[in-house]
Amino acid sequence: MQHVSHPSIIAVAALYFAVVVAISVWAARRTKTASDFFVAGHGIGLVALTVASVSTSVSGFAFIGGPGLIYSIGLGAMYIVLPASVTNVMGAWVLAKRMRLLGEARQLMTVPDAIGARYRSPLAQGLSGVAMLIGIIGYMATNALAMGVVIDAIFGVGMGWGIWIGMGVTLAYSVAGGILAGIYVDVFQGTLMAAASVLVFLAVLKVGGGLGGLSTEILAKDPGFLSPWGKITPLAALSFFFVFGLGSLGQPQGVHKYYMLKDPLQLRWYPLLKTLGLILVLLLYFGVGVGVKSLVARGALAPLAAPDAATPTFLLRFTPVLLAALVFSGVAAATMSAVNSFINIAAAVVTHDLPLAFGRTPKNELKWGRISTAVLAIAAALLAQVSGSMVAFLGIFGWGLFASTLVPALAIGLNWEGATKEGAIASISTGLCVTLVAETLAYMKVYSFPAGVTVSGLSLVLSVLVFFAVSWLTRARAVEQIDPDVRLVMSV
Amino acid sequence: MTKRIALAAMLAAALAILAAYASAFLPGGAPGWAPWLMALGIPTILVAVMVLGAARDGRVGRLALPFAFSFLVLAAGFCLAVGLPANEAAGSPLYLGLPLRAAIVIYGIGLFPIVVLPIAYALTFGEQTLNAADIERVRLAGEAWAREKAAAAGGPTSHRPSTTGTEPEAVLPGARA
Asked: How far is B165 from chain A (nearest CA, A)?
């Protein structure tokens, strides 16, 4: 990312981080128990939870990587975010109620907890925890690297120091305030980013002469950009929709938040508010990608050296410096937010789910949660320093790994009494093995998959089919595997 | 019955999607029918999983219409994008600022479901999704389970144990309840 150092931008970024620190101090004072640390004490209100959930959903990709992807492959990149029209309400129907009620019945704290309770299986709980941990390591390292890039771009401190500064701030508020700090930092930065996204989109329309003006310029030079698939094949584009659509039901950073809602009856408005929030935040994703392409097409901008330069270039050339400062600070904050969520989830796996899987009773979870948070954050920062290409590899399969290991066992399993423990274990194992093996083969260039076939999509559909097949084969044991309270949660 | 149909639809859709992926491995790459399988399989699996989650006492009640609408919008949107001729070019007519196929995808698939589904969810929430009586029943069921587990572990307890087997949370003096 190009350097954007400017006194105003630095000042806004510094102020942004100061607010983050203040929120962290406040949250730290309210974090007294493991429940507070991992699920905000089950006490978050609807608006805070919704805004935080939107923030967690988008991360820095929506502001830098996403517009860059649109710039390079056209509207095909929209299939990553188009599922938002259905995923929030789908998640509400399929998971929100069930997870929140499980939290009510059993004081659960983690996604593997729900799997363990559903199937009465420590093995399923542990296996899902391991799968999540592997995906999270990659995600955290990728976001740590992104943090370093953005902080270096703003403050000019070098990427290495950028990583340590970013992870240091994130570590501090994650250790002190856990997910409670994360939630309210998300509320702060999510609100600002939604506003900034709308303003940037309006700026794009103004500069481009409206959406029609943008399209006219692009169609004259590169009409394929505006085909429904952009520069990719229909199969590839639709595969994105499948993975980011159905796969949303397996993303622990979103699903985990259902435990935190104070009043389950407020779920009534959750999908509507979240969908509207996401649309606002994603306006920048679409607008900048298409806008910069149009500006290049008409000669108002030189072709970009790198697609990720789309957002910084547009902001620095066509928006007020304050708005640019807000977006750059927001990108850094968004990556911190993602890291906070993932660190918290990973710490819960290490201190809570894995001990339970091995038949041990977790002790002093708050203390060990804080310690493991620190260790994981430092490990992610070190990994990010070591190898950019390795980090990129680790980061690409996170979403797909979560989707293929958790969607069948959690999302389908919580709604189907015929799902069995054996089916859950088989599907989690399938998702884990197919994703890791196939992505490694592709990364090492041993095998490249044909156009349109994504490892994530293939892994997801295979794990769904294995889940159905093994559950059917072991169906005689399905009924005895469900505790009465869990059965009630599944039936209401 | 509704859940069985939803599960069957999910299975069929998953097989269709797998077939689409598998066809890409054929010599010459994915044939022309592969995107059609995805265009129909994806709406089927998404709506089917929604039906699975929303069904209560074997029915989706008033939600049948919004689910049917959403399936039609998604399926029609994808099929039109696949089936209409690729004629984007300089001077193409624009619909709300976009060429036809792009407009169908962005506005049809990206925005239409938003108008219907979250509102349908909110309007049917009390009858179809969750109400206060449900929460109370679940809470009581959880307490009953916890008592049984505690009794099985060897004696009554004076607090509510965490059902995941962890020790009771350490609550510091003066901590928030």
From this structure: 6
